[in-house]
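Hello forum,

I keep getting stuck at the same step: I have a sequence, I want structure tokens, and every attempt I make locally crashes halfway through. Rather than fight my setup again tonight, could one of you with a working pipeline run this one for me? It's a single chain of 727 residues.
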Amino acid sequence: MPIQYYIQDTNEAILVEDKPFASGGEGGLHEILEPARLMTYVAKIFHANKRDKEKEKKIKYLIANPPSFEYSPEHQPIIWVEKALYDEKGEFIGFIMPRAHGEKLEILCSPKLPKSLGGEWNRLRFGHDEAMRLRMKVCYNLAAAIHQIHATGRYVLVDLKPDNILIRSNGVVSIVDTDSIEVIENGETLFPATVVTPEYTPAEYYNGVKPGKVLIEDTWDRFSLAVIYYRLLMGVHPFAASSAAPYDVLTSLGDKIKEGLFVHTKTPKSKFLVIPPPHKKFKTLDDTLRQCFMKTLDLGYEDIHQRTTAEEWGTAFLNNPLLLVDRPLPSKALKVTGLEHKNWYDMALSQALVDLNLTPPKRQLAVIDKDGGGGPMMPSSFWKQIKDTYKKAGSATWVVAKFIGIVLAVITVFILVVGTFTQGYEVTHALKFLLEYLISIPIYLLPVLPFLLLIPFVTGIIRLSSQRASNLGSVLSSTFALTTAQKQRSLEDRQYSLFSKRVKLKQRLQEIKAELDILKQVKQKKEQEFNRKNNQAINTTNKDIQTQITQERLGIAEQDQLAQSLMKEEAQKVRECRLKLQELLDKVPYKVIPGKTPQQKIGSLGNFNLDLGFSPEEVIQITKELQALEDVTQQEIDDIKASYDANHQALIEKGGQFKIKIDDITKSATSDMRQKINIDNTLLNKSYRKLLKTRNELTLELYDEEMKLQDLNEHIRVVRDELNKYR
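Reply #2:
Ran it on my machine without issues. Output:
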């Protein structure tokens, strides 16, 4: 039953579902039913033992001091507290926040994606061409959100882990559970964090640095973030390995973190016995990312301030070659996929059946009428009857046409003979008269010809309508009976009649299914016998076709490798441009201005709360210089990309030549297979074709009978409902 709570500062009432749709250690999440404008929000209601003045103060502080971040109505990277909630007695019970959408980031932190995920997640699967690039985009999005939280100087997440991060298939992330973070002000802890997770907690925790006892710095989150990134990019925890003595007694990840047993530590490898294979991917990362991991997980063990910040991670990912240059490989641009495992024999057989019009019929959709009738809009039997009628009419017309042709030929010969032996007989006049007469007949028939052609179609509709009308009429007839008893008796008779029809209909359905099962077995036996006799030829032909395709694909693969080399070169040049810009920004006078990019520094210059010591004239001049630096850098990057456009296009065009050959091979593959194993004259002989025709006819009948049964069941329901009124 819904419960009413209140937003204190506006005294606005909100209606909340009483049962939570999700629960945690501190409280549950509830749907907001009213008002409508808050239905995109959720209410977090704390458990009774978690509600106290300290919790209320913390929530009010979070509401008053949110981090600055960009968001849209469709997505918020940080799910922050917005309004405190109170009950009718005025007691604090929780808060409301925007609803977050997506899956827990944990789904991307293992070697394989969960099977329950939809196809839209496949691009993020390890082994997919796009996986590493897209995962790095996820990492960048997460770094941007964490940086905004740390930039306040007030907050440390402490319990940063994949379960507290939601992700969508497009790579956007949302940080949730932010009400449990640690709040710091003026170097003191105002509100400590409530929980930690051992496998994401740095070594200092195990040496006595615990939330609530001492101040927690953002270096704590830097460690957690590096562990999450490692799992996202490698699919394994950075401390997951079998340790040698004396560490062989350590089994939990927390214990290994305490001892600094990072798999890629610079200390002797004798610390480890077995290192899981996913760790090997670490060597494929570029130097910058590897250094970020080493600074945090290895060097950061002794000196926590060496750990990579969220801002540094963001810069590292932004300048990674996979994100700097995003060009489609020739194989992707040419769409050369799905040709590796095709069975060309199956495709040849399918094409042969299509050519011979022997493919199985498709089931017609059934639609129930509102008046109680049922069945398909146009049953397949209706179309079959119409088709057969037109065929018969066409055959009859052809017979009549041939007969008339013979008669005309006889008449023409007769006229010519009479004209030859009869003096004064005008043959030309007679033939002209006959021709004019023959032409006049179609002219007279032309206006009625469309109506003649529509006769079979109209007859079929009348037949179908009369069938349904008779079903409905039997129900209506009972309505006009004289007495209630007569009405009831009429309906009972009708119901009995319908039941009898249904029994016969079900019997026929069973007979059809039994016949189809026999035909299926015979068909399979014929195909198995054919495959047994021609197995070698089929395999050889399949192999030959696939070998030709593979050979051409190797040419495209070569272009892919060249394209990847070009992209690395391009990325390196773009990176150099950005680094050159960064070096300029690190010099006086730009160095003292907050921000990493020219636009960020320009924004800081316009912040009147920042006293940077520049005169108004200097601010204007520096703004122009910063804008010019950005424009020059962007122009250099555009020139670099333009210089590589032609090279990449040339690779795609060269790959296109191989693609043309592949298309030619695939187009002729089915016909080659049909010819080499002689499918049309061996497997598809007269008996096999007859078998398939019989199967198709029975299948059509089966579909029709099933639709009739559906229609009949609906009529029985109508009669039963009507009969219940009189009982």
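Residues 1-99 form a domain with the Phosphorylase Kinase; domain 1 fold (CATH 3.30.200.20). If your local run keeps crashing, start a new thread with the error log.
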